[in-house]
Design a protein that fits this description.
The chain is of the alpha+beta class and 178 residues long. The protein contains 4 helices and 9 strands. The longest helix is centred in the middle third of the chain and has 15 residues. The chain binds coenzyme A.
Length: 178
């Protein structure tokens, strides 16, 4: 990204939106254009809560990210992972996209950074996402943000995982209820 080509400080904002809000209706065509309706809408019993972030440039939606809070290992049928006697939770990013004409201007990075801050607030100890091989922009973004890489044979993809310092509270490892 060149020094003057990004949106940093120039009208870009990242907000969390609910399905009932007008912002959701405005964002929906962006989700459809990127063909991620399923990722934005899917529900599962192990999702403790779900959070959709919208990227707005001067109030115009240009991208989105959805994260869900889940107990680490639950979707793989694995037992809880404990730390100091407490169950650990993670923020899993299951939808992420930016309009093609708005890419390479820092919108995706801003969404990921906000997701990490939100994960911290939600007392998750890591952020995780899956990406197909060959998604060079996404790989660049995740690796440059400090994510570790776990290749998976299961679905010809990799998992990106980044540890998040948990909030300094007695309930610091508890996910927020849905
Ligand atoms: C992945 C995606 C969300 C990134 O959004 P974005 O707004 O372009 O992200 P940013 O501008 O913040 O960062 C992109 C980075 O990738 C780099 N990049 C772009 N194309 C690249 C390529 N072909 N190879 C390597 N790096 C590349 C950019 O230079 C930039 O890095 P920099 O900040 O160090 O300059 C966007 O490409 C997208 O919507 N892709 C389609 C949907 C998708 O793949 N979603 C993720 C998996 S579900």
């Amino acid at each position: 990204m060149g020094p003057n080509s990004g949106y940093k400080g120039k009208g870009l904002s990242i907000i969390e939106i609910s399905e009932e809000s007008q912002d959701w209706q405005h964002l929906w065509p962006v989700v459809e254009l990127l063909n991620q309706q399923q990722n934005v809408q899917v529900q599962a019993g192990h999702f403790l809560s779900s959070h959709v972030l919208a990227a707005l440039v001067n109030d115009r939606p240009v991208g989105f990210l959805r994260l869900v809070v889940q107990r680490i290992g639950e979707n793989e049928g694995r037992p809880p992972v404990l730390f100091q006697g407490r169950t650990l939770f993670e923020a899993k990013i299951i939808a992420f996209g930016v309009l093609p004409k708005e890419r390479n201007r820092g919108v995706g990075r801003a969404l990921q950074q906000k997701a990490m801050r939100r994960a911290h607030e939600l007392n998750c100890c890591q952020v995780r996402s899956r990406s197909d091989y060959g998604n060079d922009a996404n790989y660049h973004l995740k690796i440059s943000l400090g994510f570790g890489i776990q290749p998976s044979l299961e679905n010809d993809s990799v998992y990106f995982v980044k540890a998040i310092p948990t909030a300094d509270s007695p309930d610091s490892t508890r996910g927020e209820p849905a």
